[in-house]
Structure formats: C-alpha cells, structure tokens
Amino acid sequence: MTPAATPAVSLEELARWFEREHSLDAPWLAEMRRHALAHFRDVGFPTTRQEEWRWTNVAPIAHTRFQSASPADSVEPLRREIFHRMAPYAPRSLGGYEIVFINGVHAPELSTAPAPAIQITTLRNAMARHGEMVRAHLGREALWEQNGFAALNTAGFQDGAFIHVPDGVVVDKPIHLLFFTTAGRAGTPLLVQPRNLVLIGAGARLVLACVYAGQDAAAALTNPVLEMVLGEAAQVELVKLQRESDSAFHVAHEAVRLRAAANLLSLTLNLGGGLVRNNLSVRLDGPGAQATLNGLTLAAARRHVDNHTLLDHACANSTSHELYKYLLAGRAGGVFRGKILVRPGAQKTDARQTSKTILLSDEASMNSQPQLEIYADDVKCTHGSTTGPLDDEQIFYLRSRGIAAVQARTLLTYAFAGDVLQRVRYAPWRQYLEALVAGELNRLHIEKTST
Q1: Backbone angles phi, psi at 213, to 5 degrees
Q2: What is the DSSP code string of 181-213?
Q3: Integer Cα distance of 390 and 413 in angstroms
Q4: In this predicted structure, what is the pLDDT of residue 91?
Q5: How much helix, strand and coil, in percent to the nearest 5, is found in the chain?
Q6: Domain ranges of the chain
Q7: What DSSP string runs through 60-85?
Q8: Are strands 195-200 and 225-230 parallel, antiparallel or unpaired?
Q9: Model-wide pTM > 0.90
C-alpha cells in the first residue's frame, strides 16, 4: 500500500495514522505493529523522572508536530537533486555497495547493485521474497517493549535495508546504508523511521557503515532501528556516522546478537544533530564472542548527545572492550550511560569500559554513568570515567615551542579524538573519518586559550 501524505500532526496522531496505513500488512507483522502501537500509547514518551532518561529531555520531540515521510516527499527528480546536494556527506570515494534512502524512501536509481553472493535489498522487498527469514528475526533483537521510540518505529516503519550474508562469504566491499533527510512540505518536520535487518552467516565477514545526514535547516525526527545477528565465528566492523542538521532530532536503537566466537567492532561517530540519543545493546550469546564498542562525539553550541550502551554477557568466556570519548564546546551537553551485565553462569567474562570527556568551555556539561551488574564470581570487569578541561601543562609545553594557543588546543583535541579513530580496522574508512574529524575540529567553537 502506498503511504498517503499526512498533515502536520503530533506523534500520537501519527500513531493512529500508522494503524490505518498498515492494515494490509502480513498478519504476523500487523499483529506486531498493533502490540507495539498499544505499548507506545501506554508508556508515551520517556521523561526525566525515569532513570534511563534523567539527563535527556525529549519534551521538544513530544511537543513537535510532524509529517510522516512518504513517496510524495521525494519523487525521483527531487531525490536526485537532494542526493547531489548531500554528496559531500556520502563516502562515495570508498567504493562500497550503497543503498540510498531519501526521506525514508528507497532511491534505487542512486543505489548500487550488490555482489551475487549476498542479498542487499529493501526490507519491504525482503518481506515479500524472504518472509519467513524476516519473520524469524524482525523484532527479536530490538525489544520494543523496553523502548518507547523502538515501539514507535515498529508501529510505523515503512521501509529500510535488508542484508543477508550467507555462511562463509567474505564481502569484497563495504556496504553503505545512506539515509538523507530534508525538511518536509512547507518546512514541516518529517518523521523518518528506517528499519534495518542484517543477518550474517557463520564465518562470514562484512564492513557495514550507516550514515545519517541532513541538510543544515532540516528539522526532522530520525528514529531508526537496526537489528543484527552474527553467526558463529562471523566478523563485522560496524561504523555509524551521524551528521544530522543542528535542528534535527535523532533517536536510534541498535541491537546486535553474537553467536559463539563472533566478533563485532563498532564505532559510533556523532558530528551533528540538535538532540541525539543512541541506544546500542550487544548480547554476547556464545563462548568466545567478542565485542569492541568505540564512540566519539564532537558537539558545540547547544547540541545534546546521549550515548547509552549495554554489553550483555549471557555466556561464559566472552570479552568486551568499550571506549567512548567526547569533545564538548559552547553550551553542548553530553551523556554516557554504559552498562556491563554479566549474567549467572557467564564465568570467565573479561569486560572493560571507559568514558573520557574534554570540556572545551565553561558552559559545556557532561554526565557519565558507567555501570557494572555482575552475577558471576569468576570475572574480570572494570570501568572508569574522566571529565575535565584540556591539560594546561600540555598546552604550555606546546606553546613554549612556538605553537600558537589555538593550534596547540587543536593538536591536543585531535590527538584525543585520533585515539578512537585509529581503532577502525578498515583503512579507507579510517582515513576518511580522520580527515572528516580534522575538518570538524577546525570548525569547532573553542573558547579562549590560556596564555
């Protein structure tokens, strides 16, 4: 059924529209949507009275009237025009397979064909061609019962990407999922809800990048959900690059399950968005599973970026390492809440978690809450958090060698950020991100340096 255009309405009103619009879905999907919609209506939007949302106020989202994105918002000529304008945001020089979505609508004319051994298509097409495979996994990792925004996505998503890599296949190029967002009709904010499902077979390998970008004046709510399952001994490097406009809201939920000996290396890079919340949960569900989560946030002005992570050790002999860093200038606010959960019987767990923040102005603020929840006795688990300004002694050292104050601060902040970027294994992506971050640091509003 082709989605019809909707007037600017509240998200509650959009929820009623979802109920009508998706009435022709497959019975199992329609039932899932109904339950998710009922849950969203019951719980509503989170408030700062809830511990998980204490430092992130989503009232601006709840009080905004949105339009639901539809094909009418991005017909093919308009999609090409938007893509041309958004080209600087796309890592096209890296030569990956690309699936492009403009305002939530798939743009096949801008996407590239996959290798024959793998399946890359839209979720809508996958439900028609591989319905049982989709049914077996959709909604099983990203539990909408635990997240109101994930419930809203489940109730109303229109499309997204579906990737299936069979057992033993090593994908020869990275796969890029590109989501570009503009303002809706008459400048009304759009609600864009991609739903992505990624299934990686045993022993398969993949580099996957999800890029979310918006034009400077595009006020929108991007509410994506990514579900991923890694089979036994599979290896995935996942890069999420968030470059929404400073007027945009971005609330994402990513859920990954690792089977025995599977390996996930993840980077979340936040360079945009007015109000951003990333929820990343990883379940280590087999012996030898390994997860490495890295994050870097650069924020200035009044931007607010909140990263919530969960490393769920559900099986013995699993390993996780986590490092999230923030550079905050102006009146920007940052939040990091990371939990390491070690379930009963998950002996020999080795988990480390670190959060580090540099405040580049007196008005910037950071709330960091690393957590350990351990129900096994033979484990090695540590966590730590530091927040503060740049080291005056390091600045003095550089200045004493003839380096100007602003340059000294830029060098130190780049070294701080570079520590995270150097952990990206895929060299073309690492080089691309290093150049991108260097440019962003040059534009970051840094307060007067000490003399």
Answers
A1: -140, 150
A2: E---GGGPPEEE--EEEEEE-TT-EEEEEEEEE
A3: 8
A4: 82
A5: 30, 35, 35
A6: 11-285
A7: HHHT--BEE--GGGS-HHHHHHHHHH
A8: parallel
A9: yes
